């Protein structure tokens, strides 16, 4: 009466059947045999990591699609430009004849040049143009998971091919800064005289003793060797050489400074319009260096302006400035360069060239405003000026702008030039084609890999619905039998009632 063992066993069995039935019904409703960490923590963790990789690879596939489209635009544009250059070659070949109108041919060439520029400017996808610049563009191509669980990415690097026809130095690109109208004459017609200061080395210099001359805040030094001490003349000679080295290196502090003297004297001459501060020192080991009367500066040139009127020459920067272009201005055989950066225009290029020239050429200074570089010549001889611009990328089509078939010489030179330009555009198109093919191969691999990962995840967590269906019917039968068994077990104590009749 109090303990019905048969009923207890039947009830336990029925509970287990109901739990199994609930599990099978969940598998059928969700389609998964493992839907959370409680079902199987290890398998759930593995499948979750794999699913995160699948999501990552789907994003990578989108990146590859975007990259393929970008490269496809660049390849198509490069192929079109190749065709235009071939058309240009036909015109150049026809210009080799003397009995043709080269001016009209040049007009056709100029139109093709403009069309190339239009294509290059338009060859962008989502703002990215592979036909401008010289750097590389990285396209996300893979997600790599190591055995220890660390994740890294791989990229496909696409090198830009600069096919732009850049701007340049506008005419005149050559000129002359003429000699000063009153070369050599100072204010009032008197000869200009630089200020000078004599520095004298005295005493007995010791071994390894350092002597210093400071010019306009910049130090030059000379140190005697550690074996035998120099005499005063040797120290002065060493200091003169050290100062001259700074002058030769165009140290701004030494602009307008010359050095001379003999024996133990170092003579500093100043051709500037203002005085230059001088300082001297030694480490007090034996020798000394000082100026007569303790003077501390070189006086300004007298009169301050050596010439009344300077001759000038002007270079004007024009065209479209592209980042990376190298602008060169030659002044009297010395080249000064400025490399354009992003955002530069003609004014910035001119300012850069003016700063590069400064006062680094004897008797020549650079000034001007805006896009003009005005070279002022205070010397007695004319100074030749030259201008040039190099494309940011040596493989670009900058030289298309220089093709001129209006003369026989120009037509001959153009025929040689056009071959190289065609090869440049062919190489660019071929490079983009190879890159696009690689991206397509990688994209196909990523899609296949994603499908394989999805299949693997399915094998781990998805339910076998055929088996689940069969188990469901079996468990339903077992449930009915369990209920019957429990009912029978509960009825057994009723037999005891017969004993009380």
| Spatial separation of the terminal alpha carbons | 17 Å
Domain module count: 4
The major pleated sheet works out as: 4 strands, antiparallel
| Percentage beta strand | 15-25%
Instruction: Give the mean pLDDT.
Output: 82
Strand ordering within the main sheet? 5-19-15-16
Give, in order, the helices and strands.
Answer: HHHEEEEEEEEHEEEEEEEEHEEEHH
Number of strands: 19
CATH architecture of the largest domain: Up-down Bundle
Rg, nearest Å = 44 Å
Secondary structural class: alpha+beta
CATH fold description of the largest domain:
f41 fragment of flagellin, N-terminal domain
Quick one: CATH superfamily of the largest domain?
f41 fragment of flagellin, N-terminal domain
Task: Give the fraction of residues assigned to helices.
Answer: 40-55%
Structure keywords:
f41 fragment of flagellin, N-terminal domain, 7 helices, about 500 residues, elongated, 4-stranded antiparallel beta sheet, 4 domains
Structure explained in plain terms:
By secondary structure, the protein is of the alpha+beta class. The chain folds into four domains: 5-31 and 464-500; 44-164 and 404-454, f41 fragment of flagellin, N-terminal domain, CATH 1.20.1330.10; 174-182 and 310-390, no CATH class; 193-298, Baseplate Structural Protein Gp11, Chain: A, domain 3. Helices cover 42% and strands 22% of the residues. It has seven helices and 19 strands. The protein has helices at 5-30, 41-94, 102-122, 232-248, 346-357, 408-461, 465-491; strands spanning 124-125, 128-129, 136-145, 151-159, 174-177, 195-203, 210-215, 218-223, 257-260, 265-270, 276-282, 287-291, 297-298, 311-316, 326-331, 334-339, 364-367, 372-377, 383-390. The protein has a four-stranded antiparallel beta sheet, with helices on one face. Strand 17 (364-367) and strand 18 (372-377) form a beta hairpin. Helix 1 (5-30) runs antiparallel to helix 7, helix 2 runs antiparallel to helix 3 and helix 2 (41-94) packs antiparallel against helix 6 (408-461). It is elongated, with a radius of gyration of 44 Å.
